[in-house]
Amino acid sequence: GQNIDQPTEMTATEGAIVQINCTYQTSGFNGLFWYQQHAGEAPTFLSYNVLDGLEEKGRFSSFLSRSKGYSYLLLKELQMKDSASYLCAVRDYKLSFGAGTTVTVRA
Amino acid sequence: DAEITQSPRHKITETGRQVTLACHQTWNHNNMFWYRQDLGHGLRLIHYSYGVQDTNKGEVSDGYSVSRSNTEDLPLTLESAASSQTSVYFCASSRSRDLTDTQYFGPGTRLTVL
Predict the structure, then answer these.
(1) How far apart are CA A62 and CA A34, in angstroms?
(2) What is the distance in angstroms between the Cα of A80 and the nearest Cα belonging to chain B?
C-alpha cells in the first residue's frame, strides 16, 4: 500500500518562496507527480520525477530522493494566482495521492 | 482541441436511486480512471480501465461500477446511492500503460446524496 504525507496548509507572501514537502512509503515506485488544483477546479499536472534530483520548470521546481522517500515542490516568486492546493502523487502500478497542501499567498 | 468532459457538473439525488456520471475524452487515450475527492482524503481511485472491455477495481470500488464499450467513454454508475457517496468525482485519462504517462483530469462532478 501507499502512505503519502504532506502538510495541510501553508501561507506565504507574494514574491516569496515556499517549499512543500512530501514523504511517502510505498511498496513500489514508478515516479512522483505534483499537481496543482485551484478551488472548484480539476487537478492540473505540474511536474514528474522518477530519478533523484531537481527538475526545474520556470518558477516551479521539484526534487526527489528515492532513498529517503522524500520530495518537495518549490514555488518561487509567488504570485496571487499560485493560491491553490498542491497534490503529491506516487505511482507504483497506480497513482496514489496525498491529501494535498493548501497554499495561501498574501499580498 | 482534444479534451475530457464530465456531465452533469452538479447532481443532487436521493438515497437508493441509481445514478450515472458520464466521462468523455477525445484524446483517444487508452486508459481512463474515476476518482472521488473528499476533504482530508485526497483523491481516491474508484475504478479504472486500460482499454475497451477492460475494467478494474480501485481502492474504494464498493457501490460503484463502470463499463467501457468504446475508447472515448467510461460512465460511472452508483447502483444505489448512499449519503457516504456525497463527494466530488473526477474522471482522468492517460495515453498508454506506460507508468510514466501523465493523467489528465476532467472538470469534476459534484454529487450530493440526500
Answers:
(1) 8
(2) 22
**Are the Cβ atoms of A98 and B107 closer than 8 angstroms?**
no
Question: Most B CBs within 10 Å: which of A4, A57, A97, A101, as the mutation test of the B interface?
Answer: A97
Torsion from C-alpha of B87, B91, B96, B99, nearest 10 degrees: -20
Distances (CA, A) of B93 to A64, A78, B25, B80: 25, 30, 8, 26
Q: How close does chain A come to B8, measured CA to CA in Å?
A: 15
CB atoms B100 and A87 under 8 Å: no
What lies within 8 Å, CB to CB, of A78 at 6+ separation is: A12, A13, A14, A15, A16, A17, A18, A105
Q: Encode chain B (114 residues) as per-residue pLDDT tens digits.
A: 669 999 999 999 999 999 999 999 999 999 999 999 998 788 999 999 999 999 999 999 999 999 999 999 999 999 999 999 999 999 999 987 776 688 999 999 999 999
Sign of CA dihedral B36, B109, B75, B83: positive
Cell of A64: 526527489
Residue B21 CB burial class (10 angstroms; 0-12, 13-18, ≥19): buried
